[in-house]
Amino acid sequence: MRKKMATLFLLLCLTVQLAAGSTSVALAEDTDYNLGFENMAENWTQYGTVTVETQMVVPTEIGTVWTINPHGERMAVLTPSGANVSPATLQATMGLADSSIAYINSIFSISGSSGKDITNMAYIYQDIQLSAGQELKMSWNYVATDYVPWNDASLLCAANIAEPAKLPIINGYYSDVSVLGATVPGTGNYSTGSYGSTGWQTVTVKAAFAGTYRLGYVVFNLGDIAYPPYLFVEDMAGTTLKDGENFEPIDPDDNPPPMQPVQSLNYDVTLFNEAAANDGSVTDKAVLTLTNETFTGAVGSVISAVTFENTPAGLTPVIKKTGDNTAELSFTGKASPNGDSSDISNFRVIFGNSAFTGGDAAKVLGSDTAILGFDFDNAVFTVAFYDADGNLLSTQQIEEGGDAVPPTAPEVPGYTFDSWSAPYEDITGSAVLNAVYTANTDTPYIVEYYVPNEAGDGYVLKDTVKMTGTTDSEVTAPIKAYDGLAPDETKSVLKGTVAADGSLVLAVYYKEGEVEAVDTGDTNSPWGLTMLLSALAMTLVVISAKRKALQL
Ligand SMILES: [Ca+2]
Ligand SMILES: [Ca+2]
Ligand SMILES: [Ca+2]
Ligand SMILES: [Ca+2]
Known about the structure:
3 helices, 35 strands, 552 residues, binds calcium ion, mainly beta
């Protein structure tokens, strides 16, 4: 017979209660969902006694005082009150699968009249969108004011609303409900014993399938409504003090209640990292654990009734049976490419019916999963820039896929910088880049025309023609026609290479005489054509020289 009543227990809960609707709150990072309650109870639907607190002090009957602090400014505090909620209503409210409410009933009677009956409760919930493989972490702390054998307990619910049978993975197990803290050992995944606290614990909800999940926390009295428990909820772990001293989170219960009896296949690793060699190899392995089913075939053999999708090119996945309920997934080969941009999150493993003794893969949650991923790392490459003469201008260490910053290409007289000899953006390997220039086509040179002076003992400059040509290309002086004069091949400088600095000077010297023939070497050139039309004859001597080299 219960000797105490809740109404006799002076609950000295020293709380700082904040006014709902306060808007002077800096929104937390999870502002979309307010998972940390920094925005009070916004987004959360609630039942029973639910408050948002900055700190809560919970005394117990034996004098132990628990002080619970949030991670941020605020946390939610749930404690049962009011009228009980029927199992059907709880199931409907949280969107739980039939198997889940039966599972809860198997641990805490929810429909009978035994001392395990849920008598009253508090809960909060809101709907969260999760993509396949997306993980949600939250923190909670269960505090018992009751004592063994009078049990109280708490639950996390995460029902896949549209498709309840497609269960999420809570703390590594396929289920849409998980017992959090309980008072009596053996009834919770974390059990406090009399007047205890679990400390802040973290729960992970991973969506095995994309969908809308109803994230709910429930705390309830069992058997009676005396000495109600507390469930604290935060986005991240706060701190717990026991009689003013720091209190570390307790270890999981050694003998927790069984998990939901679903057939499932779990991977202990779902993200495979590129090996430290950064060469595309993957040494991470996953242990696959089969629950309520067994693998066919011999231990040590490769399971062949399995297919893979979205495997990174170059890698070969292998699954070996290591026991009737276990297998190992590993990878051979090297992924290529293997930079960050090759990361994937939809590697899919599909087991066939013949992989399982029961012969029905569809019954095994996780037998077809696309929540596996690969994390590759960028390599760092050396990119070196050189000028046209082979002098190093810049060396840069560039992360794979990054862009090098080209130096200013030095000016080269007579030339214009055109480009670098190889791409310097989206770097996929070490590279040597040379500056590439184009010769200017408008580099000046001069042609001077000298005719004999009147005394016949020297020359006078008759004409100067400014020309342009392509730097470092050979040009030929056009021949002007002067009456009674012919080019003097022995003195003339008729061809030369266009100097980048504009210093090339060609000189055409004339002597007395008639033009006898034309030999331009190119009868289609304009001046050659002019000469043909003029019926002038000449023999051209090619001499390359600059003005300073001329001997007049
Ligand atoms: Ca918070
Ligand atoms: Ca109680
Ligand atoms: Ca890599
Ligand atoms: Ca990566």
